Amino acid sequence: MTSRPITPEAWRPRGISNLEPNAWTALRQTGSTSVVAGPGAGKSEFLAQRAAYLLETGLCKAPKQILAISFKADAAANLAARVRKRCPPELAERFTSITFDAFTKSLVDRFLAAIPQHWRPTRPYEIGFPSRRMVIDELNSIRGLAQPAWQARIAAFAPDRFEAVNVGGHRLAVEVPQLLTTAEEFAIYHWLHRQLFGTEMSKLTFVTLNRLAELIVRANPKIARALRMTYPYVFVDEFQDTSFAQYDFLLSTFGQGGTAVTAVGDHKQRIMGWAGARQDAFERFEADFGAQRVNLLFNFRSSPELVRIQHFVAQTLDPQSPQIQSQAASQLDSDVVQVWKSSSTVAEGQRLAQWIAADMAARQKQPRDYVLLVRQRPDQFEEELQPRFAAVGLSLRNESRTIGRTNVQDLMVDEAASIALAALRLATGQRSAAAWSTLSSAVYAIRGADEDNELLRDRADRDIQDFLGRLRQDIRDETPSTELAVEITQRIFEFLDVAAIKSTFSAYTRNDLLEVMIEGISLHLQQAASETANWPDCIDRFVGMNDIPLMTVHKSKGLEYDTVFFVGLDDQSWWSHTPGNPEGIATFFVALSRAKQRAVFLFCEHRGARRQIADLYQMLTDAGVEEVDVN
Hints:
The protein is an alpha/beta fold.
């Protein structure tokens, strides 16, 4: 059944009561728009509503699509899920939500033959993740090949930024390079040549894949036109994190007119400079795309007192930062933001664990209402704090912990993992409408059973029930074990059909992400099975239901918690910070803005001093934040 278009004037938001006035302005823009959305502004919800508006009014006419580009897989999956809730299925299927890296890689895989021969990688190729040591060694090797006049310049390249900034900001020549005229050109050429042709199989980084994708659209106007015709509307989330290579790809592909690009983000949360994010992404976008800037002014996450303190930090980053209006009710009368000072890590850990246990009991909160944020080295903090938490009956979970070739956090938001988890819940006897909806919707999509095809859907339902019945019968009387965890994972994905999943879900097209996630699901389920005695507990262990999350500030982007603890606010953890450094202040701002009701910053004298980060503490002092001795 095809939905009739709604007139733009008659369209109303889906699933929410209304939008703030500035969000209405941005939503109705016909051209490119720069939407500055601070913490708690509801960026994902705004993009989902704009998608619904464009699809339901027919402004994005079939078969044209909306392309949404995110930086993290969980953000892409979350946005896709929101649109599916807001739109009828036949409209939602024209919304493609994917990460930058997955999109550019898919273009390279699809149009590899269109890459000029002198830049064309092998098919297949490997993905490389060079370490800092490998970059240093490679630059030293390149320097040895260079003429003496260029060697000092090559030696001066920063290994942490060379690929992201130098390679990422350099366009590949369509024709065979005849003459390398600078040390930078020489180094970039040999860096790329080694990846492409240094071994029997090319080993490419994602920066190189971005450069190759940009070359494809620049060297092949027909491909560029086809992309613009397919995607007349493009969304880019977390735009402040756009790297040189990503921005240049966006400009070459969609900057020629005919595509309305909506860039959403917050320059005050620019914390990816270390990874090559442009410092001027919004300014360049507005100039190159003729985009109009719109500021969203509501914060739906944080209480009024938290928003007041956030504004002190925001003004340090941007003196023109507008006053944001909190739309969240306050649940606390006092102690909304504090600094806890201790003399030892033992005293700090004990106080933290005991306080959380008491607050959970007093306010009827769950473990995942809290989060521990650190600047770096979460493994070290986990090792240090876990015994203190165990002593009061609490458990920590390091969301950055590696599982095979992925990590806990990425696994928990992966679409295939969500489908497998739904199947496991149902097979172990849980009665869950949400789990059935997740599993059946996936199977319908895999089998092409749209809502009008009742015959195919009935057949799919019977197959699902038969599969779950057999699996339930085989594991009903069995306690969880590592061997059974391996078998269950295999059987679930045999039923779903790996090849069919890849052809159905765009995130898994032409890459090995699905294999990575299946491996991670199996390993994580094995670990959970080895620690539990029954299937309900095993599933809770798998999802971390009873664990308090511990993660880096960078991993916390886009998340929110009732209470945030920032552990390790000292010179040791912040060794690279210099007074007034915008990226350091932005990291501090991101941590503070994850909180809905309370934020606590922890300083332990045993870990280090706080002279280097005195400016961060001064901001809190200026905002009237109390410091409490917790020894």
